[in-house]
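User: Quick sanity check before I run a bigger batch. Here is a single chain. Can you write out its predicted 3D structure?
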Amino acid sequence: MSEFDPLFGTGKSFKKSSEIDPQSEESMATVKRMKKLFEAARSARKPKDPRWNEQLEFYLGKQWQAKRPSFRSSEVFNLVFSLVEGMVPIIKDARPRIGFSPVEPQDLELANVLDDLVEFDWGEGNWQDPMTDTLRDSLILGTGLGAMEFDPGVNSGAGKIEMRSVDPFTFYPAPRATNINKGEPYVIESTPVDLEFAQSLFPEIAPLMKPGVQSGNKVLEDRKKFLTTDEANSVDLDKAYDDIASDYTGKELAETDQVLMNRYFMNDATMEEVELTSNKDSKARDDFKEAEKYKLKYPKGRYIVTVNDVLAFDGHNPYADGKFPYARLVNYPIPRNFWGISDVQWLMGPQRLTNRVVNFLIESLMLMSNPIWVVDQGAVDPDLITNQAGLIVEKLKGSDVHRESGAGVPPQMFELLRVAQELFNRIHGMGETSQGIRPEGISSGDQLELLVQVSQTRLREKARNLETFLDDMGKLYVARAMQFYREPRIIAITGRDSGIRPKFFKFRIQEAEDGNGYEALIHDFNPVNPNDPKSALVVSDQPRVFKTKGIFDVRSSVSSNLPFAKRSQAATAIQLFDSQVIDKEDLLDKLEWPDREKILLRVKTLELQNQAQNAQQQQPS
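Assistant: Done. Predicted structure follows.
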């Protein structure tokens, strides 16, 4: 029984919030109901699993569908991998940023503080990695998923907000869901975990946990066995993978010593009766309307955890915003559908055709370079015939010993290979300019820049999808900060708006005294000597206090950071600097110049020295 939901793999301890009897009739009824919800969501997602596996295999290089004889050429020329890994670094070349805009005027300065706070947590938690994993999932499978959760077991007990990439194979939305936090009744995250780990999370019910009850996720186990070597192409892939909870038997799970942990986030409409605690006369009770006798039992949602068939936790959603802690990144959306379309899905045909044509050419060249010998019976000892250069063969007079030249490669095969590659390029929509290749016939720089802009339309669409995903994650982040950042924490900010040295401030949130919203308390670290950039810092005694309702607009920046936009952005920044609209710090920030803090420090020091010299020269002698 945990107060906060577990982050898999962290192994942290949890506070006990309530006692439930997992063997009670009520608990068993809850488990039975959850199994029905899981079955419904699992059945709705079931058609996706075989295709996802095939797409992931293509990305990893397992692209031959059947076992091939050893004498056949089975090389893989993985254009799919090249495409995906070509788009990922372009989209995240400059780190995407999450920023906040105030909804109310008094929140303007606090929004700037939240900008600094999310920058610090992003760098401290290395959120670039889970964001990149989610981006790859969307490109390969069509949909990526992320979670914004709170880990109370780190930072000396103060806790920390964490971004996590969620494996789409473990995620089950409600059957008719089209998005997340748009009125869906529930979402489920179902993950096979080690028995010992589950017992450490819920020690109260550890004796009831048995491996092998229900089933595990064979999809995930198969993915662990993926190979990218030549042997991977000799595996029989004709068998269609089934989904979770149907392939693994209890015996197989017992051998792996795993259990299935399901986490249910629900908008539960269960009502409970309200007790009137007032000591007023009976007339007050009589005036109590029938409709007001009941209220939602879980007004901000319900959170349930089951381990196989055992109820581990049943209580309120641990997050005060009442939202599910997930966000969705769609590659190509399908109207009114939760799952999107991947880049890999429609490239598998041209990829197979390319592999077959190229391997046919390899086999043809092997045969042509080693033609067969035709020898009359008894004309020569066959063991004396080799492929040695300049070999002299003595044969019986009147007999025939010669080599049959192989058939030439049909010229149509080269044309077919060209067509396959052209189809591949047309489907993925990224031209040669996206790969750094200058097209023939383009000599003007303006023409080339225009061509680059046109060729990057698909990338700009993906960048906008990533911005939408980060906007959703940013909204969840604000809610987590308002709810959990109650202990003072020191934040260090370098770079934008931090001046010539890292900026430090102490930050915490508390409930407003009037019970309406929150109060943010900020203690700044100021230099002892404001004129000395290197002087020591001291924390202020009196905090800056900002009263807020905790509602902010989120604005993410991805598309403006794409490489094709950098050149234009840099030129515009230089023009603004020349016009004195922006200063040196803004210019270096827009150019993303390395070591810009050191440069600004050196410039500031020289300015102070010049000011001191000018002051001495102006003093009367």
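The two ends are 80 Å apart (CA to CA).

User: Great, the batch can go ahead then.
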